[in-house]
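haha ok so turns out i had the wrong file open the whole time. this is the CORRECT one, sorry everyone. sequence first:
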Amino acid sequence: MQPLFVTGNGRFRYYDVSVNPYENTLAERMGWTAHISSLRLKLHRLWMRDSGDTEVLEDWLVDVANSRGARIVARNPEAVRAAVLPSESEMSNAELAVGLLLPQNLDRPQILRLAAQLVSGGKVAFDELKSLAVQERVERMLAELSRQALRVEPKHAVWLKITGAFGNGGAISPPLLHYTRLAEPVPVNGRVNAQCWRLVA
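then structure:
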């Protein structure tokens, strides 16, 4: 796992990874073969048009997700400058979620949490997500996220649909993310209660 920048009070964590020319891709970490992705080509085109201060596509995807309300992971605000980001008509939330899961991405598994937050929050059209996931070969990634998410909320409607669509694939071992990375503890009497969790949506 790449390190995260932590603010002085230690409460808020920001995604802040230096660009390393030798950085592996997620596919290389997993020992998978990555195909030529038509979605990544589209995202790359939009990034080149709107890149602002971002050095890599993955940072830009984080900024887009943040602009659409998914903020479980965010870049250090001091490093982010205003940029024009694509509208949902140019890039749907399903494309954004699948784009965050692509094995061709740099090996930064913390950004998978943003895809999970978009799904948990009901911001992604399931039929489009399912079709894109098959096209872009991220079914195993989605199935693994659904397994982790359903540990927290076993009756979550969209994650149940994802499990129904892709849940027969083999589990990723070890998992890329623990279920606690997709959730937050529910406070009891103003105190953190590690026995009860809810998905970040």
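The chain has eight helices and four strands.
again sry for the mixup
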